[in-house]
């Protein structure tokens, strides 16, 4: 949600910043801007409403500089417009900001009372004025002065024409990472903007600032105590940030699932004891046996994957488990129990609601594990232990490979907990074999893409759709509906199939198709009765299961009943993708959304 990139060094900053903004555009795409310090020491700023391409079109040919900052925005305060786009400027100072300044209204009023004319409606602009008004000689101290007046979250990058060879960046709740080059330095909110230039990075901690010059950096806390940071090497592959010939990142990431699932399983299955080893759990067998309940927290698709996880844990380990939106949990003064294991799920590891839920739990003494994709992210660092997905960077706003990888990690965790408790070796062996079969079976489903695309183009003509599923099929129905509405904007509502006749059956008509998740499990007959009720009311039914159950049937290969939901998800991802593509939508950048919701 919003992207920051910054550069200081001998090269022209503009192409580097523009390249970084293009890589960060998935995080926010309603406006973009740049500020660079030109060779004559002047501040040059360009901003444009719309995409990074609109900013590129607005840049004059001779727009160059050696130190600069850039930003791509997802609006929170003030509508998307040229003036509300970042950087915000006050005299010699320009600032880009991710996050929310909570006391912006008071600060704006104080600045206005002092005669400062505010140009934008944003909370971020106050930072530029506060820094410019500081009497500190060093830019770092001026930034520190300004931040001491601010309440809220931020990742910021600042340039000042009085210090033309210096960048200052700071972090509190919104990530900032430094990239170390050869006699040049980079900074960004996300390594996506850096991988093209360097593999050596330094992650700032909350409450930390860095003064960055071409030949190095120094870090300190907000109260001016020096900190010592060691660079780490990013192992990610640059190609992971390219669409590599695919029409969209969403389609590429759907196709990456066999490999992502292989990586999630990599080295974690134990054929001797028919269990799973998860190195980072920090939970010994005795502690694992003491767990009386599991509570899983996440937002959006991460929550639905958590719901799948709760079912897996309850089925395989026989520990009562449930999932709850982290965004609700954090506000309801939850009762935190000592023998409950809390698990936070997040692809980005940055989702603010999930992060605050984790912090609230830790504050109350709860034990929290993370199931996270982004290595070293805020949520991963905040937890007592956890499991990484190793799905690789997910760029499309609509989560696909992270969703399936999360479900696979939960299957591993459920197997691990189950084998410490009462899951038999035979059942352990059965689940291990099922997990190993998943990548090949996902690849088999992907081969049906043409058939699914034709059905999706037909379904895209409807205004609304119902998604239903029972028990294991229920989170799949929810995720299917979420995917469809996110990218195609076709209204989609998910219900447990068992709840249909308690209300939503009233909606069923020839104008409202129903997508039904109908695996060959012990609830198949119940599901078939529900389909009969829909068809009796002339509702069109599309089934996703193991058998042809009518004209519109999508089938997947059979795995173990506990793992089947992972496969049943894949056709629904393709259905959503192709419905959106058929409607001509910008699939990777759906309206009103952005990747990683780092604000409340
Ligand atoms: C998924 O398609 C959505 N874009 C969204 O629901 C997402 O899963 C949610 O915001 C949580 O993100 P996280 O996994 O990065 O925490």
UniProtKB/TrEMBL annotation:
Domain Glutamine amidotransferase type-2: 2-215
PANTHER family: GLUCOSAMINE--FRUCTOSE-6-PHOSPHATE AMINOTRANSFERASE, ISOMERIZING (PTHR10937), GLUTAMINE--FRUCTOSE-6-PHOSPHATE TRANSAMINASE (ISOMERIZING) (PTHR10937:SF0)
Role summary: Catalyzes the first step in hexosamine metabolism, converting fructose-6P into glucosamine-6P using glutamine as a nitrogen source.
Protein name: Glutamine--fructose-6-phosphate aminotransferase [isomerizing]
Broad class of the protein's primary localization: cytoplasm
Top-level EC class as recorded in UniProt: transferase
Active-site residues, Swiss-Prot/TrEMBL: 2 (nucleophile), 595 (for fru-6p isomerization activity)
Compartmental location: Cytoplasm
Annotated GO MF terms: carbohydrate derivative binding; glutamine-fructose-6-phosphate transaminase (isomerizing) activity
Any one of the GO BP annotations: fructose 6-phosphate metabolic process
EC code: 2.6.1.16
Protein source organism: Actinomadura rubrobrunea
Residue ranges annotated for the SIS domain, each copy included: 283-423, 455-590
Chemical reaction(s) catalysed: D-fructose 6-phosphate + L-glutamine = D-glucosamine 6-phosphate + L-glutamate
Cellular component, GO, one term: cytosol
Entry keyword annotation includes Heme: no
Upper taxonomic lineage: Bacteria, Bacillati, Actinomycetota, Actinomycetes, Streptosporangiales
Family annotation (NCBIfam families): glmS (TIGR01135), PRK00331.1 (NF001484)
Superkingdom of origin organism: Bacteria
């Amino acid at each position: 949600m919003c992207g920051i990139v910054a550069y200081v060094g001998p090269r022209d900053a503009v192409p580097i910043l523009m390249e970084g903004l293009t890589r960060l555009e998935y995080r926010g795409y309603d406006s973009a801007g740049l500020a660079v310090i030109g060779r004559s020491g002047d501040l040059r700023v360009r901003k444009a409403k719309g995409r990074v391409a609109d900013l590129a079109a607005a840049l004059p040919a001779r727009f160059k500089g050696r130190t600069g900052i850039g930003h791509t925005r997802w609006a929170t305060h003030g509508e998307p417009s040229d003036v509300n786009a970042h950087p915000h400027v006050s005299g010699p100072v320009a600032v880009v900001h991710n996050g929310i300044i909570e006391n912006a209204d008071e600060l704006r009023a104080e600045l206005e009372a002092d005669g400062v004319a505010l140009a934008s409606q944003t909370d971020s602009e106050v930072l530029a004025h506060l820094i410019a008004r500081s009497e500190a000689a060093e830019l770092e101290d001026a930034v520190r002065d300004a931040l001491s007046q601010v309440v809220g979250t931020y990742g910021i990058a600042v340039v000042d024409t009085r210090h033309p060879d210096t960048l200052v960046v700071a972090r509190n709740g919104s990530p900032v990472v430094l990239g170390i080059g050869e006699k040049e330095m980079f900074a960004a909110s996300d390594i996506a903007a850096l991988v093209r230039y360097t593999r050596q990075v330094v992650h700032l901690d909350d409450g930390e600032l860095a003064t960055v010059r071409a030949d190095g950096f120094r870090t300190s806390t907000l109260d001016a105590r020096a900190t010592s940071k060691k660079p780490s090497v990013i192992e990610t592959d640059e190609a992971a940030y390219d669409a590599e010939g695919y029409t969209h990142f969403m389609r590429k990431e759907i196709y990456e699932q066999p490999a992502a699932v292989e990586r999630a399983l990599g080295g974690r299955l134990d054929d001797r004891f028919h269990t799973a080893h998860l190195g980072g759990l920090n939970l010994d067998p005795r502690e694992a046996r003491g767990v009386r309940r599991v509570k899983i927290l996440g937002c959006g698709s991460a929550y639905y994957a958590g719901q799948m996880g709760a079912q897996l844990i309850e089925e395989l380990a026989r520990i009562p488990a449930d999932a709850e939106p982290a965004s609700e949990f954090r506000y309801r003064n939850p009762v935190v129990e000592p023998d409950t294991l809390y698990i936070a799920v997040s692809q980005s590891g940055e989702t603010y609601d999930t992060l605050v839920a984790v912090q609230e739990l830790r504050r109350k003494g709860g034990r929290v594990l993370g199931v996270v994709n982004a290595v070293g992210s805020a949520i991963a660092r905040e937890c007592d232990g956890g499991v990484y997905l190793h799905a690789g960077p997910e760029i499309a706003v609509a989560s696909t490979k992270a969703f399936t990888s999360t479900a696979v990690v939960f299957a591993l965790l459920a197997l691990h907990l189950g084998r410490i408790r009462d899951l038999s070796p035979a059942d352990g062996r059965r689940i291990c074999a099922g997990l190993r079969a998943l990548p090949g079976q996902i690849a088999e489903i992907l081969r049906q893409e043409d058939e699914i695309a034709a059905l999706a183009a037909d379904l895209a003509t409807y205004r609304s759709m119902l998604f239903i599923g029972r028990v294991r099929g229920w989170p799949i129905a929810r995720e299917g509906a979420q995917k469809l509405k996110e990218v195609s904007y076709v209204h989609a509502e998910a219900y447990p199939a068992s709840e249909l006749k308690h209300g939503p059956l009233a909606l069923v008509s020839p104008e409202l198709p129903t997508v039904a998740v109908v695996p060959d499990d012990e609830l198949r007959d119940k599901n078939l009765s529900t389909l009969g009720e829909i068809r009796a009311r002339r509702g069109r039914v599309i089934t996703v299961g193991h058998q042809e159950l009518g004209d519109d049937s999508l089938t997947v290969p059979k795995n173990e009943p506990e793992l089947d939901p992972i496969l049943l998800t894949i056709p629904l991802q393709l259905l959503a993708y192709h419905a959106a593509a058929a409607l001509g939508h910008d699939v990777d950048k759906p309206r009103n959304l952005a990747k990683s919701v780092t604000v409340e």
